[in-house]
């Protein structure tokens, strides 16, 4: 199960690759608009993140949550729920 910190770091690294900067320069409290994340890049990011996390995500995820911190907190909670459901089944 992925933690909030692991998810945040994964997104920061992903965005750093796109922006061609060091991951440390990507502030998790900046709004996604500041990164210039267009809908095409957001869809790619969601697809890659789904694969890494192992569960399906909303294509509009990065438009519903404004920052990496918000998204990673939400996804960590989802990961916990997914893990709990797998343990019940």
From TrEMBL:
<dbReference type="InterPro" id="IPR020806">
    <property type="entry name" value="PKS_PP-bd"/>
</dbReference>
<dbReference type="InterPro" id="IPR009081">
    <property type="entry name" value="PP-bd_ACP"/>
</dbReference>
<protein>
    <recommendedName>
        <fullName>Carrier domain-containing protein</fullName>
    </recommendedName>
</protein>
<keyword id="KW-0596">Phosphopantetheine</keyword>
<feature type="domain" description="Carrier">
    <location>
        <begin position="5"/>
        <end position="79"/>
    </location>
</feature>
<dbReference type="Pfam" id="PF00550">
    <property type="entry name" value="PP-binding"/>
</dbReference>
<keyword id="KW-0597">Phosphoprotein</keyword>
<dbReference type="GO" id="GO:0031177">
    <property type="term" value="F:phosphopantetheine binding"/>
</dbReference>
<dbReference type="InterPro" id="IPR036736">
    <property type="entry name" value="ACP-like_sf"/>
</dbReference>
């Amino acid at each position: 199960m992925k933690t909030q910190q692991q998810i945040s770091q994964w997104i920061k690294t992903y965005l750093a690759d796109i922006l061609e900067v060091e991951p440390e320069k990507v502030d998790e409290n900046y709004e996604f608009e500041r990164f210039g994340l267009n809908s095409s890049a957001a869809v790619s990011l969601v697809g890659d993140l789904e694969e890494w996390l192992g569960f399906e995500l909303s294509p509009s995820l990065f438009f519903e949550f404004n920052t990496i911190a918000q998204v990673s907190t939400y996804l960590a909670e989802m990961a916990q729920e997914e893990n709990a459901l797998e343990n019940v089944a």
